[in-house]
Amino acid sequence: TRSDGMTTGPMSPRRQANGRINHRHPSAQAMRLDAFFSTEAWFRYERAYGDVPGTRAALLATAQWRTRVLDLRPDEATVWRGVRGSYHPIVNKLRKDPEVAIVDADSETFLNVCLPMQVRLEGGMTRTRASWDVQAEWLRTLPRIGTCWIGYRRGQPKAFIYTIIWRAYAYYGYGRTEEDGIHHALIWHAVRTLKVRGVNWFELGWQL
After folding, report:
1. Are the C-beta atoms of residues 197 and 65 closer than 8 Å to each other?
2. pTM score, two decimals?
3. H helices within the chain, ranges in order?
4. What is the pLDDT of residues 14-57, one digit of tens each?
5. How far apart are CA 13 and CA 65, in angstroms?
6. d(CA 164, CA 170)
7. CA dist 4 → 81, 105, 110, 112, 132 (Å)
8. Among residues 108, 196, 185, 105, which one has the least CA distance to residue 149?
9. 148: which of 55, 136, 202, 203 is 20 to 30 A away, CA to CA?
């Protein structure tokens, strides 16, 4: 795994079970974000990170591992049943917790809250500031490419996640947390919000 979380090797066979698709399977080819990873918007991120444009697309072309993809097309109750059972009590508890709030972050909040949290939890900058600036720009584009949610407890940021949206497909890029339960709540909040926005597939596997 690289410093930005991007997996470069196969996942454990135990993670190739129910609810996951093989990236080389024809149905997966039609759903994945390959189209985005061949756009100038993504190439700008790769340049900012220090990669040669096309690095991600080349890695995906020969990918052998499997990745978890949630189908958001059914009704919310059906999607909820597809979420890992151990998450249910955690998410239900936090949804009722008046001390917890989830905020859809704009680009300024992303840089002022999420970047410092990442630096603090990682013990320093793990990737270029320019790559953060590109992701902040994605939060300003219309239609939006990036979406970031921050979980607060008593007004203090405790976790965040960043997703990429491309057409009807969303991709969990990365996240950081100081309170695991809030991270679970953020994932479910993302599922519900993305579904309302017309996203049909939400990939939670191979990360940025």
Report:
1. no
2. 0.83
3. 26-31, 40-49, 55-61, 76-82, 87-95, 107-109, 115-122, 129-138, 180-196
4. 333 334 444 444 444 445 567 888 899 999 999 999 999 999 88
5. 9
6. 5
7. 31, 20, 16, 18, 11
8. 105
9. 55
